[in-house]
Amino acid sequence: MSSVNIITIDGPSGVGKGTAGVVIAKKLKYDYLDSGALYRLLALGAQRHNVELENEASLVALAGHFDIAFSDDENGEIKTFFEGEDVSGPLRSESIAQFASQVATYPSVRSALLDRQRLFAVEPGLIADGRDMGTVVFPDAALKFFLNASFDARASRRHKQLIERGENVSLRAVRDQLQDRDSRDQNRLVSPLFPAEDAVEIDTSNMTADEVVNTLLEIVALKGFFAEANA
Ligand code: DC
Fold first, then answer.
1. For a pocket test of ligand 1, which of 101, 117, 165 has the largest count of ligand atoms closer than 8 A to its C-beta?
2. Is residue 147 part of a domain?
């Protein structure tokens, strides 16, 4: 293993990768990259600066320079900042998710975000969560996971998440939105969502969030990451 240990967790929305990624990062004392948050921040930044989806050049400029930051609050929750303002709440809305998946189809936008993502790889290690972490951003990662689940399971998890954050949305609407996002993320020309050849693939349809965490942790332990972290 190189001096920076990288574990990637890719997969579509609603498979439990975020929860698992945060727990594993804490246990290993690694940094955590929520790459989806970068695409969401770009979408939010574009909205705030009145940059239209069609304005690729301005989106690229924004992706290269936007002022963003992540930090843990007193409860250990990750807070996300745009130009100094805590935008953790608005960032998780479905409208931002849809806009994020649209800006993410531009190859130029993706390459503008590439270096920013790679800067997260610092010692002792990084858990990188997203769609193309194992295939494009960190192809040499020491361990790669690809999580998937049935469409029904993902839609009902996503629905629960949105209801919990106060969005008044029907399961039917969530299914339509998820379908849109899946097809855009899977069919875009650059870095579409698919498992890296060497990824460990896990179906989380019938697992609770805790079971997903424990399954991944067991594999991380089997691969010797804890031994190395404690050496
Ligand atoms: O993981 P998420 O739901 O926060 O991601 C929001 C959108 O960002 C997702 O629909 C597609 C895009 N995305 C991407 O294209 N590549 C990534 N590595 C992460 C997210």
1. 101
2. yes
Decide if 228 is inside a domain: no
CATH number of the domain that 62 lies in? 3.40.50.300
Residue range(s) defining the domain that contains residue 121: 5-223
In a domain, 229, yes or no: no
pLDDT tens digits, one per residue of 14-32 = 999 999 999 999 999 999 9
Close Cβ partners of 40 (under 8 Å, ≥ 6 residues apart):
91, 92, 96, 97, 100
CB-based burial of residue 140 (10 Å sphere; 0-12 exposed, 13-18 middle, 19+ buried)? exposed
Question: For residue 132, is it within any domain?
Answer: yes
Domain count, the chain: 1
Q: How far apart are CA 185 and CA 187, in angstroms?
A: 6
> If pLDDT is split at 50, 70 and 90, which confidence band does 104 have?
very high
What residues does ligand 1 touch, defined as CB less than 6 Å away? 13, 35-36, 39-40, 97, 100-101, 104, 130-132, 181, 185
pLDDT per residue as tens digits for the range 177-224: 999 999 999 999 888 999 999 999 999 999 999 999 999 999 999 999
Please give the model's pTM, rounded to 2 decimal places. 0.95
